[in-house]
Structures are given as C-alpha cells and as structure tokens.
Amino acid sequence: MKKALAFALALTMAATMMAGCGKKEKETEAATEAATEAGVEAEETEKTTSGDTYQAALLVPGTLGDKSFWDSSNEGLTKLRDELGEDVFNFKVEQMGGDSADMANYEPTFLDYCASGEYDVIITGSWQTVDALLTSMEMYPDQKFILFDEEFDFEGNGNPENLYNLLFKQNEVSYLVGAAAAKMSESGTICFLGGMDGKVINDFLVGYIQGAVDTNPDIKVAVSMVGNYEDSAKGKDLSLAMYNAGADIGFNVAGNAGLGLIEAASETGKLAFGVDSDQAALLPDYADSIPTSALKNVGDALYRAIKLDMEGQLAYGTTESLGFADNGVGLVEDAHYEEMVPEEVRTYVADLQQQITDGEITVYTAGEMTTDEIEELKASVAVQ
Fold first, then answer.
1. What are the pLDDT digits (tens) for 115-174?
2. Strand 220-225 and strand 163-168: pairing?
3. DSSP assignment of 6-42
4. Which of 49, 194, 279, 341 could make an S-S bridge to 274, C-beta 3.0–4.6 Å?
C-alpha cells in the first residue's frame, strides 16, 4: 500500500515553474500578418523582453511530473537559470495537457505567447504541436522557435529561418537497452511499451529490437502501444499482459503512461528499463525494478541550445541530431546500474556503445524504413 501510494503521488506531482522578474521597456517591432485559415487577426505587438534578460517559454504538450521527457526539458532550463541568474535568463512553462481534447487549445496558446512579444524564443516538442507551430511561425516570422524531438520538414514548409529543429538518435541508446535486456532475460522474451505509433517511438523500437536480436537471434519481443502518453492505468494493464505472457524485462517509452510498466514490473517481480530521466532515482520505491534508464538528454540539449542562442550562434533554419558522439543520448551508469546489471553485461554494452560511436555498428532508424519494413521487423520477433 505504501509503494502504491508513493507511485500515485509520483504520477500526480507536477511542478509548474513560473519565473517572474521586473520588466523594462524595449523598442517596438511590428509583427503583423494575416492568418485567415486560423481565423485569427495578428495585431501589432511590442517586444517587451526585459533589458538584457533573455526570456524563453516552454510550451509542453503534456504535463510536468512525468519523471521523464518533460521533466528533463524543464530541468535543463532550470539549470541554466540557476547558473546564469534570473536577471540574465528566465523562462516560463505552460503545461498544455496531452490528451486529444487538449490539442484544440494548442494553437490559441501558441498565438497568445507570440502576441505577448515577451519571449526571445518559444520552445516546444513532439509531433502534437507541429500544426500550432506552423501557424505561429507564419503569423510571427520574427519570433524564434525551437522544436525538439520531432523532425521538421523545412523544404516542404518554405525553409523558414526562425526555427531550430533539435533531434536525438534515440535508436542508438535503445539498441543498448535491447542488447542488455536480451543478455539479462531468462525467459527469452522481452517487451516494449510505447506511447503512440509514430516515428520517434518506432525509432526507439527498431533500435531496441535490433540490439536484442544482435545479442540473441532467438529473442522474442512483445510490443504494445498505449495510444497516448498520459494513461498510466492502461499502460499498466498492457504491461501486466506482456509480463504475464512470459516477458521478464521491459522498456517503457510512453511518458506518464510508461510509469504503468514500472509498476507492473514491480508487482510481478520483473524488470523495466526507464527512459529520458534517471527513473530509478526519481522513483526510489521502484528502483529495484529499474536496472537503468535510457537517456535522451533533452535538458542538456536545451541548455546547450539556449546558451548558443544567447551568443548568437544557434543555427536557425537547420536540423541537428545528437547521438552518443554529441552526448545527446546515453545510459545512466551509476552505482545502482553497477548493482543491478552484471559486470559482463555492462562491459558488453560499453563495447557496443563504442562500436556505434566509431561507426562499426549501424543502427536501424525508423526514418529510413517504410511502415511495411517496421511491421516485418516486429513480426520477426513476435511472441507466438
């Protein structure tokens, strides 16, 4: 009961970071364009950024408290503010919600933030916000944006110069998770819980399957998709079904919904790899079920991007993809990892990481595979 209560508290905790400081007047810039399709009139707005204070807005298509992706992005910006001081850098987080009903409010929220003229850059992530982002970029061409973890089609959208697109080579780190899971599995069956069937989640998946198969050609991989990133109860039900069907190690890539896999692993005495943040440290009551976590270093990447922008060095109008070589992804390698994962497996995984970094192993990426090819890969390891 104590563990269940702790987990419930972990699910509901959302830390809204509201940064405020005194505003100084700044020169006015007109930012007016028609947006007839959106039915919104862009009015002349004033850029009211405080003196030399760089202001950022993080628009989250979800909520904080996920112990994962969004918390990592918030932590990176918090780290930068703490380091520089809020008189030099400050930011605000808008938690827009991640359910389908919330998506109707994304565009008005984006437009409100643009119209305020208060922010040097507006940051967002994932595919859910792309439509709202496109409208905002068209209406406010002088507003700078950062889109992370979703590939942007620059050529197909007129090659805008006010967007920096930040991606991660999640397939590289998930290859290591699949290899470790296959090495550690006693049943010969592992599992994967994804949020939604999209390019990023499938990139995790194909890397995971490849790493597992390269390690054990006979491995079986059960796969379930929640259909969203919020429903941890459904995530738990799907995970229990996979564990009870024979899987003994899983990998969650589903945001808040993925926390259901961790709870299911704990209840069944199985293991679950974490994702995006050090979930063993963030969920101490469940640490014994989490060997390590695959990190997509969102916080570090945003920290780096904002510092570059403050120096006038961020490459707007381009896409950048960060992998092992750029410290964009990695595993949590701490005392807990050493305790949970046998030395033989850790050595094996470290060698694989070096081979990937050196270009000796080429990891599958969903972006270069057709839907049929991804389905064929899943079918090749499906539990019969």
1. 999 999 999 998 889 999 999 999 999 999 999 988 999 999 999 999 999 999 999 999
2. unpaired
3. HHHHHHH-----B---------------EETTTTEEP
4. 279
Q: Would you state the pLDDT for residue 51?
A: 56
Phi/psi-derived region of residue 117, left when phi > 0, alpha when psi is between -120 and 50, beta in every other case: left
Beta-carbon contacts of 19 under 8 Å, excluding residues fewer than 6 positions away, are 81, 86, 90, 91, 92
Confidence band of 205 (pLDDT split at 50, 70, 90): very high
Looking at residue 269, its pLDDT comes to 98
Measured in residues, the chain has a length of 384
Q: What distance in Å separates the CA atoms of residue 114 and residue 119, rounded to the nearest whole number?
A: 8
**Residue 380: HSE in the Cβ half-sphere, 13 Å Cα cutoff:** 13
Which of 20, 194, 45, 178 shows the shortest CA–CA distance to 112? 45
Same fold, 13-169+300-322 and 171-296+329-380: yes
The secondary structure of 267-303 as a DSSP string is HHT-EEEEESS-HHHH-GGGGGG-S-EEEE-HHHHHH
pLDDT 10s digits, 27-86: 333 333 433 333 333 333 333 344 589 999 999 998 888 766 788 899 999 999 999 999
The superfamily CATH assigns to domain 13-169+300-322 is Response regulator (3.40.50.2300)
Domain spans, the chain: 13-169+300-322, 171-296+329-380
pTM > 0.85? no
The rounded distance, in Å, linking the Cα atoms of 37 and 17 is 33
Give burial (CB, 10 Å; 0-12/13-18/19+) of 369. Answer: middle
Which residues contact residue 171 at a Cβ distance below 8 angstroms, ignoring those fewer than 6 apart? 203, 204, 206, 207, 363, 364, 365, 366
* Residue appearing with tokens 């024979």: 246
